[in-house]
Automatic annotation (TrEMBL):
It comes from Dyella marensis. Keywords: Membrane, Transmembrane, Transmembrane helix. InterPro entries: NnrU_dom. One of its GO terms (cellular component) is membrane. This is Uncharacterized membrane protein. It is a multi-pass membrane protein.
Length: 192
């Protein structure tokens, strides 16, 4: 569990710098240069991600049951994850209504993914992982929306084409992950 927590602290910690230390971040970018800052940011992110994946795998070897969710929540989680994939794709598709309305659909997707997994799993390592991502995504979403309002940021109006691209690509990516990759990479079949 220690490596999982360390990985989460590194990965989510570096992703929190813009929320809690924006001035320090700006000074580091000015001192190091944007490319060097992005390189350092990427290295810390990758190291944290590798640690959290390894730590999660190790924590799964010594499971601690906190609660037993009803089986129906596992199916509901599949729906939450489908929505999350569409929202995450919408962050990269130009001119869609998801981005126009939410501003930060990737963060909304992470919140949806983490919340769905908390409903469907009950082991300590799951709660630590998905709970940390949920807390981070909620905080980042609130800070980002507040910053957008303060700076008068508006997002381009959505189009039907943008919506359809986000939905089709999101559903296809979800299907590939849910029916093939989740079992191979995570070792859990989400569609029993």
């Amino acid at each position: 569990m220690t490596l999982l927590i360390l990985g989460l602290l590194l990965f989510l910690g570096v992703h929190c710098v813009h929320m809690f230390a924006a001035g320090w971040r700006a000074r580091q970018i000015a001192r190091l240069g944007e490319k060097s800052w992005k390189g350092l940011y990427s290295l810390v992110s990758i190291a944290g991600f590798v640690l959290l994946i390894y730590g999660f795998g190790q924590a799964r070897l010594q499971p601690v049951l906190l609660y037993v969710p009803p089986m129906g929540l596992r199916h509901l989680n599949a729906l939450f994850t489908l929505v999350a994939f569409v929202l995450i794709v919408a962050a990269y598709v130009p001119r869609n209504h998801f981005k126009a309305k939410l501003g930060h659909p990737m963060l909304a997707g992470v919140k949806t993914w983490a919340f769905g997994h908390l409903l469907a799993t009950g082991m300590l390592h799951d709660v630590v992982l998905f709970g940390a991502f949920l807390l981070w995504a909620v905080a980042d979403f609130v800070v980002s929306r507040r910053r957008d309002r303060a700076n008068g940021v508006t997002y381009p109006a959505g189009t039907l084409r943008g919506d359809l691209v986000a939905i089709v690509v999101g559903v296809a990516a979800w299907a590939l992950f849910a029916f093939v990759l989740h079992t191979r990479w995570i070792g859990v079949n989400p569609m029993p």
